[in-house]
Amino acid sequence: MATKIVVFEPDGIYRTIIENILLKNNYQPYFVENSAECKVVVDEVRPEIIIVDTKAAKPHDFRLLADLKVLSKAPIVLTTDENVDDYMTALNSKNITIVLPKPIKSAELSRVLDNLLSVDARVWFGIHNYIPELRKLRKIELKRSTQVRTCIKTILTEMRAWGFNFSQETEMDLVWQEILINAVYHAHGYTQQKKDRVAIELPDPYRVEVAYGASESAFGIAVRDNMGTLTPRIIIEALNQTIEQQRMIMRAAETGDDISQVLLDRGRGLDLIRQLSGEYYFIIDPGVSTEVIIIYDRYYEKDDAVGSLKIFDLSYHLSTSASA
């Protein structure tokens, strides 16, 4: 029997795009026209996944999402052509961790749906699951914080040798540095040492695993720790804090107020990943492992103005997939 997916998408063009993607992947879409019908169809059909547009979901403080979570354990995927920053608090309160930007990319939506429907954690972790027809793959292990810069230089050099010459290497370098530093310091409980700029070495058996590879059309990097201390709530709260601080800075620029005493460093790295990366994923197996995967297609340019959010928490998604 085909996988059932309920879709609440008011825009006819996007509805057709989503329908084509779902049918191509042998899913059975059920399209609804309004919130009331959405709840009725979800209750009757018992879908494995629900896709909702943010404009359709946001009336009454995203009440529809709360109602759907009462009716069904199916994961909810939001799609948007709006700035997701405006809804970060609501997403956190409704436990929404996946928001895809419009225009919808077939490969990205297909990958997200495949992950959500899988009960095999091996499908979630590993860069080979995110770059079809991977032809190059390299791995580096980090034990010391002083290895971060050397690791990045090695990856950039090999990336160019493989024929990927991106115009935004500076931004990529910055994002990778934040990911690696977070994995080495924060994941292993060395936050204060990071603030104090103290070099550290991870005790055995702890390490950070870096994998990078390429196909003919895409390049990617994956950074994995073996702690699993990051959570969706930590990510979203940190992002929300960074968004609020950016707004404070903008207001202070207009008013001349001194806000230096209330600005915090927390969340900057996570926000850089979201704002400056290509296609990216946070994958969390709580208490076991966290992996950040970033994919850049050959013609990558960061032109996604509305942002996105892709956090896979195995403790939640695998349980909902198994019970759907």
Topology:
Layout: E1 3-8, H1 12-24, E2 27-31, H2 35-45, E3 49-53, H3 54-57, H4 59-71, E4 76-80, H5 88-93, E5 98-101, H6 106-117, E6 136-142, H7 148-161, H8 169-184, H9 191-195, E7 208-214, E8 218-225, H10 232-255, H11 268-276, E9 279-285, E10 289-297, E11 309-313, H12 314-323
Parallel strand pairs: 1-2, 1-3, 3-4, 4-5, 9-11
Antiparallel strand pairs: 5-11, 6-7, 7-8, 8-10, 9-10
Helix pairs in contact: 2-4, 7-8, 8-11
Notable features of this structure?
alpha/beta, Rossmann fold, Heat Shock Protein 90, Sig_transdc_resp-reg_receiver, CheY-like_superfamily, Response regulatory domain-containing protein, HATPase_C_sf
Describe this entry's structure for a reader.
The protein is of the alpha/beta class and 324 residues long. It folds into 2 domains: 3-117, Response regulator (Rossmann fold); 122-323, Heat Shock Protein 90. Helix content is 42%, strand content 21%. The protein has helices spanning 12-24, 35-45, 54-57, 59-71, 88-93, 106-117, 148-161, 169-184, 191-195, 232-255, 268-276, 314-323, and strands spanning 3-8, 27-31, 49-53, 76-80, 98-101, 136-142, 208-214, 218-225, 279-285, 289-297, 309-313. An 11-stranded mixed beta sheet has the order 2-1-3-4-5-11-9-10-8-7-6, with helices on both faces. A hairpin with a 3-residue loop joins β7 (208-214) and β8 (218-225). The longest helix is centred in the C-terminal third of the chain and has 24 residues, at 232-255. The chain is globular.
